[in-house]
Amino acid sequence: MLETVVSGIRFSNPLLLASGIMDETADSMIRISKSGAGGIVTKSIGMEEREGYENPVVYELPNGLGLLNAMGLPNPGIENYKNEIKNALKGGVPVIGSIFGKDAGEFLYLSKRMEDYGVHAIELNLSCPHAKGYGMEIGVDENLVEEIVNEVKKSVNIPVWAKLTPNTHKIVDIAKAAEKADALVLINTVRGMAIDVDARVPVLKNVYGGLSGPCIKPIGVRAVYEVYRETQKEIVGVGGILNGRDALEYIMAGAKAVQIGTAIYYRGVGVFHEIASEMREWMKKNKVSKIKELVGIAQVR
Ligand code: SIN
């Protein structure tokens, strides 16, 4: 009923772990695999070990609106990540290796290492909203996006996913620049900040962060809808999915799978099983036997 195929990879359900939460160590990734996720995306891994920013790195918005975070791409570095991947693969679900680099050369090197480690696909982080020289700084430039995607595609034999930023007015142009990617991942967090009024300073040490959670869902759904409409590419939707109806919204906009991140903070690791059963329940009630029947169904012709 929920099985889906993205870039030739079969997932038992369309609910994948989003990059950046509980995905730095094999143990936590296996825990998520055993909690009902259809697939796992690793923490974004770079050329060298990075500590990330100083605290505070996360701020919870009031009224369940979401989270603001600026971790600073902390990671152990690609050379130290081999065993985590090897062990994470024992979780029995596809593992997608997320990487970030400062240019095509770094992306290419990281992709090849990830491929050697055995991941099922690569996710190019072209969208972190606050790390100097990385992510969105590259991902808003169509020429750089095209160069990186094309170079990586030429060098690896596994599918390449490009995770794009919502922090632009030209997401369709950027998606078109990434046309050689096997799938697009939409969206990464929305650049934002918060100020502690009593202390009279920004809340996050890095000042700027990325907003996730329910408040960004309409931005994500719009991005998926718009890009699917203009490109017909395979899309993985992400941003603010908290329940089965949220996931269905993304699928009806055009996504073949979705990623779950902040919902783990709100609902715990059982959220994958819970969202899957909420989706099944809706499908039974509405006499839909396969999730693929719903992909893009809300597109107004
Ligand atoms: C972080 O590590 O600060 C977030 C990474 C991202 O948004 O891509």
Topology:
Layout lengths: L3 E3 L2 E3 L3 E3 L8 H9 L4 E3 L16 E3 L6 E3 L12 H7 L6 E5 L4 H14 L3 E5 L10 H4 L2 H14 L4 E4 L7 H7 L5 E4 L3 E3 L2 E2 L4 E2 L6 E4 L4 H15 L3 E4 L5 H10 L3 E4 L1 H6 L3 H15 L16
Parallel strand pairs: 3-4, 3-16, 4-7, 7-8, 8-9, 9-10, 10-15, 15-16
Antiparallel strand pairs: 1-2, 5-6, 6-14, 11-14, 12-13
Helix pairs in contact: 1-2, 3-5, 5-6, 6-7, 7-8, 8-10
Bound molecules: succinic acid.
Succinic acid binds next to loops.
Task: Describe the 3D structure.
It is a single chain. The chain is of the alpha/beta class and 301 residues long. It has one domain: TIM Barrel, CATH 3.20.20. It has 10 helices and 16 strands. An 8-stranded parallel barrel has the order 3-4-7-8-9-10-15-16, surrounded by 6 helices. A 4-stranded antiparallel beta sheet has the order 5-6-14-11, with no helix packed on it. Strands 1-2 form a two-stranded antiparallel ribbon. The longest helix has 15 residues, at 217-231. The model has no long low-confidence stretch (mean pLDDT 97). It binds succinic acid. Succinic acid (SIN) is lined by residues 20, 44, 70-73, 125, 128, 135, 188-189, 210.
Would you kindly provide a brief summary of this structure?
With 301 residues, the protein is α/β, with parallel strands linked by helices.
